[in-house]
Design goal:
The chain is mainly alpha-helical and 435 residues long. The chain contains 19 helices and no strands. Helix content is 77%, strand content 0%.
């Protein structure tokens, strides 16, 4: 919510701080958080290895809250930019940290469903920010109130994590076995304690994950393979066009008479939320790979439908309606697979030793691609037209489906240790986890 809340009232901010009419500065204020998020993602792995998930969550609430408050009190361009950059730092760490924490504390049987809560939370945050932005249409100073409100989740998170458990895998890594056993007993059940501790300790002993990984180890197998998969999945996800489609959706809705941008965004947010709910139900039943494949195929068909409705309009009203159907279908299918599964499967495939570093690398790639799509999308639309750009998004979606088919293994119903041992057989002298 903190990063989305600026998109609506940017005109009021620019007017009050003296850079109205300068599209470069307006874009910089909205997007500078990406630079902070990139740095935050890269530093997140080291923080998690040293502090554990629980304390890292609490530490990163400092730039999140401070950045929002500085932005709310800003009276110059430099102040708003500094506040937004701090917010980005916190967002960058959190986007890495949340999937790691969820994957490490969740029972194997429900790890996928709990992992999709990240996507559901994002949807709720976007919808909330849309409602918060409504008064800004009549009150030019409302943006300050919005940013003060946006600092509240950081305080809630800091307080809430005081009552949350630490990752039992991190506790084993630093030698706090009794605490780890207690958490496993409460979260996974008494019958899982001995086997889980044995598997975790076996992995720690064999891959040296109690020491912590170095960045250069990303160049070594099997870490390089997983890092390549993580980076590739985020490249394909971003260049499949999700941010471009979200950016352009209000204009698509305007073609069918929905001129209110906030209302159009609400339709998009509710569709995203519905898809995330479906993902939470299906992910542990159907598996990650199947959802990823189906998601990208659905996204490709949606993009081709929009491109055809624009390029070959049999009837203008029909063409506009098909475009709306295509946009909503694209967002729904994205939320079922490409959105939640990408962030979930990377920590599942990563080793205990390098999980933080691999996630940090993967999300730094995500932020770079996110920035590039936002930077060049409108220029490409102006040069090539909407239909060719959307057809390009559809082609990337098909490429992503092919990549997932041949490069992603199914992780449903397998513990993180089972997955790690199957990907790196040298860790164990037993074949019990190999497939």
């Amino acid at each position: 919510m903190i990063c989305r809340v600026m998109n609506g009232p940017i005109v009021s901010v620019a007017r009050e701080l003296g850079f109205e009419g300068d599209p470069i500065l307006e874009g910089l204020v909205v997007s500078i958080f990406i630079a902070g998020a990139f740095i935050g993602s890269l530093t997140s792995g080291s923080l998690v290895d040293k502090l554990g998930c629980r304390r890292t969550f609490q530490v990163v609430t400092i730039p999140l809250a401070l950045g929002a408050i500085i932005s709310a009190q800003a009276h110059s361009l430099d102040e708003i930019l500094f506040g937004r950059f701090l917010v980005g730092l916190g967002i960058g760490v959190n986007t890495v940290l949340v999937p790691i924490y969820v994957s490490e504390v969740s029972p194997t049987k429900y790890r996928g469903s709990l992992g999709t809560l990240c996507q559901i939370g994002t949807c709720l945050g976007i919808i909330t920010s849309l409602f918060l932005g409504i008064p800004s249409e009549t009150d030019p100073h409302w943006w300050r109130t919005m940013l003060y409100i946006a600092s509240a989740p950081a305080f809630i998170l800091s307080l809430g994590m005081q009552f949350a458990v630490e990752s039992p895998r991190w506790l084993c890594k630093i030698g706090r076995l009794d605490d780890a056993k207690s958490i496993i007993k409460n979260l996974w059940g008494p019958s899982e304690v001995e086997r889980a501790i044995e598997d975790i300790q076996s992995v720690i002993k064999n891959d040296g994950s109690d020491v912590g990984g170095r960045w250069l180890e990303l160049l070594e197998e099997p870490h390089s393979r997983v890092a390549l998969v993580g980076g590739s999945l985020f490249i394909l996800q971003q260049f499949a066009g999700i941010n471009g489609v979200l950016y352009f959706s209000s204009l698509t809705f305007k073609d069918v008479g929905i001129a209110n941008g906030a209302l159009a965004s609400l339709y998009v947010g509710l569709t995203n939320f519905a898809g995330a709910l479906c993902a939470s139900y299906l992910i542990d039943k159907e598996g990650r790979k199947k959802l990823l494949l189906g998601s990208y195929i659905g996204m490709a068909l949606s993009m081709f439908l929009i491109a055809c409705s624009i390029s070959f309009p049999v009837d203008e009203e029909l063409g506009h309606n098909l475009s709306i159907i295509g946009v909503l279908m694209y967002i729904f299918t994205f939320a079922i697979g490409a959105g939640p599964v990408t962030g979930l499967i990377i920590p599942e495939l990563s080793s205990a030793k390098m999980r933080g570093k691999i996630m940090g690398f993967s999300f730094s790639v995500h932020w770079v691609c996110n920035f590039l799509v936002g930077l060049f999308f409108l220029d490409l639309v102006e040069i090539l037209g909407v239909a060719p750009v959307y057809a390009g998004f559809g082609s990337v979606s098909l490429l992503a489906a092919l990549y997932a088919k041949y490069n992603i293994i199914e992780t449903k119903g397998r513990s993180l240790e089972e997955i790690e041992i199957s990907l790196n057989p040298s860790l164990s002298d037993t074949d019990k986890y190999k497939q």
